[in-house]
């Protein structure tokens, strides 16, 4: 599919620097682009690569234009502009309605005629599948679950019983929505399993990454609002509520009953304990442990950057000696001297 | 299903404050409860919500009774009491024996007539499935694996070859029991894969969360004792042994050959290195890294709570300067003064 | 299968201490070995167990020989030697070509006659499956993916569209290769999904653990070179490149576009931020957070070992007071005294 720079500029509302008649036939990285391709540069780190690109044009922000030796499509949000152009040039094939051989649809399930149920996918009784949904191979939708229109379950996905999902949600392979949470009540004779009578309720345009897990609620629903994006291997505990357009990076664990606001950005491998409230527009940087409620907006951290192991071991040892350091300082403040050092130092 | 408070008090051995003839028809959260429902309050954090509840009755501890405006079922373990009542009112439907269309049962597998094998589940040769087991859709039980009675594999679960599982175990979607561990022996010409000749042996009443992984042993079995509960996305390395009734929260990683005692509580996202021994009744708080064997009982930590990012960056910088701080202090102790500060400060 | 010590010594190039005519019939751990079995001892931690072993022979390093009361096969790499012997005595059964009932092979897929496609496995259009591959039950290979010879997908594995995999790769249950990465471009009206036009390209002898996820690239491929081993629950972000023979332990998360060198050892639960370059032969110890590019060779750390919780809480409190400590020290250096202590101390 070929398109001119002029058409791209008009269609996506971009400013063009260069010949509008130049033709783009594909997308390529800056460094390996060949004539006929469109590249992008949105990260200052890669600005130095602009000069040698062989792309026909580059999507970029105005401040990078001086470094660009070829045509340019200029946007204040060049990565988003690139993403829209690339998606337009490489659309998902339209979903063709029907059932594959080996798909198992329980009596009483309602599957839109425009939806596709792939090989060996399983749909439980009373489940409702919206228009143009793609239920990928070996996925399981348990009884009573409801998917809105245009959802995409790639493969080996599990949507548990009575979960409700909005429109245009994406579930990558292996993700699980609505499994029972980790609920055990201590009793004198051991732990008693807490029944999970709640469900999980996802808004529109939610995306859940590969092997990510979202637990159902104990009494109320776990709620994931519109536009929330979860990366791979994320764990969302029972009864959590995550506000609209919050982004959660890979390997994050969120314990039960925590409420996270809107438009938050949770970095990779963050851990958040249960029963907290995180405000709107909170950023938590990677590898932090959140142990208290955090008002928003704000940025919070506790990740420790790696250094050379030998220096780190010394830092840990010094940290262990901070107590002694404080005592030595206090003694000096009281007028003591080195002779007064304690035996344990 | 309706039941009176009087019947609940008798059946579950609870003290009743209020009219024994009041009828309960369902379970609800404190805040959204309506007449006819039973709520519970076990966390002091939510005590303030008691006053406005519209529930017919609340399960609670005696010390919360003064704040409760409605009938109450009183227990020293209110969450456990609630869990038992809720499970009684919402029982799992009984498993109906049989095979779904698309289930694949290898010749030589032995499946109890009372067990259910769901759509597209696969049972390998020589596997043994106990009475009333529920083998959910698209689950795989490899050859020679043995499940005790009343086990529940929800969906997309994998139980690998020759794994043995006790009675009443629960496996949430996507969990994997008995995959080969991460065993590679260094040699001059690269790494040699270590064969995993051991298995994995689970006791009774074990629960493994969604997408949790438990590796098989290299020579001996990996052993998970009775009543161990693993949350989602937990990794248990090869040859580990986990003692009875230990609870392990989400995103925990346990390296190979580590032995964990009984009744331990391992918090979320904890990492435990290999070849350690953790005693009975050890608590490890969330986000800690365990690098040495820990005697029990005891509570251990190394998780760093997140603070405002600007303050955290300063803390990290100061930590890097601890060495200089110590040297400055030592100089003062020796009678030096500010003029003697070193160039690097 | 029985074999003499003499044959083992010759076949694996080991030095023998003891009677070459002794016969080995199986493998066993040092502590529970019985006559007729071979054990090994490669970890100094377990040397004390040698004296009481009842094994017929032990594979060990020369320096342990004095402690060994039975015959010994001596190697400078005893664990590797053991692994080779054990694999020889317990070979995987040869793959028998064919399709199981319920396997779904799309028209246009090319499956070698010597490959096995297990029950309910799904092969997409245009996929190519090499000689003697084992495609385990309920695994999914999407359209256009290509597997080299002798690959083993255990069960419930997902290989996404157009991924290419070399020879002899191993995929444990639940792992996902080539899912879309976490790519969203900020725009004034929300986030725009970035299309993932790249693929994932794996070399030979790669092993990916249970429920591990490897994302495909946005424009270029994610690349995993020959001999890379990934443990369970590892996340590899889009566009990453991992050099040959690098080992990555469980629960590691690697953000997008990071490049890792050859022969690196990444410890458990490490987090690596995106767009970094890690050199060859870098070791990152467990639980570290890597925030900057790291030259190789070298060893880097930031994991904090757990201590008793009460001591750890004090350490955290002192860390919060480091600022005040520095100011007190500076005051003393200027000739101040205790009377000058600030109010906030």
The low-confidence parts of chain A are 338-345
Helical content band of chain A? 10-25%
Structural class of chain A comes to: alpha/beta
In this structure, how is the largest beta sheet of chain A organized? 11 strands, parallel
CATH homologous superfamily annotation of the largest domain in chain A: Hexapeptide repeat proteins
| CATH class descriptor name of the largest domain in chain A | Mainly Beta
Total number of domains of chain A: 3
- Mean pLDDT of chain A equals 94
Biggest interface: B-C, 75 and 72 residues
Cα-to-Cα separation, first versus last residue of chain A: 74 Å
Number of helices of chain A: 4
Shape of chain A: flat
Q: Cα-atom Rg of chain A, whole angstroms?
A: 27 Å
Extended strand count of chain A? 40
Strand content of chain A: 25-35%
The oligomerization state is homotrimer
- CATH topology heading of the largest domain in chain A: UDP N-Acetylglucosamine Acyltransferase, domain 1
Strand line-up of the largest beta sheet of chain A: 8-11-14-17-20-25-28-31-34-37-39
CATH architecture of the largest domain in chain A: 3 Solenoid
Can you offer a commentary on this structure?
3 copies of one chain form a homotrimer. Chain A has 345 residues and is α/β, with parallel strands linked by helices. The first copy, chain A, folds into 3 domains: 3-89, MurE/MurF, N-terminal domain (Udp-n-acetylmuramoylalanyl-d-glutamate--2,6- Diaminopimelate Ligase, Chain: A, domain 1); 98-300, UDP N-Acetylglucosamine Acyltransferase, domain 1, CATH 2.160.10.10; 311-340, no CATH class. In chain A, the strands form 6 sheets. Chain A has an 11-stranded parallel beta sheet, with no helix packed on it. Chain A is flat, with a radius of gyration of 27 Å. Chain A starts with a strand and ends in a 12-residue tail after the last helix. At the A-B interface, strand 22, strand 23, strand 38, strand 39 and helix 3 of A face helix 2, strand 40, helix 3 and helix 4 of B.
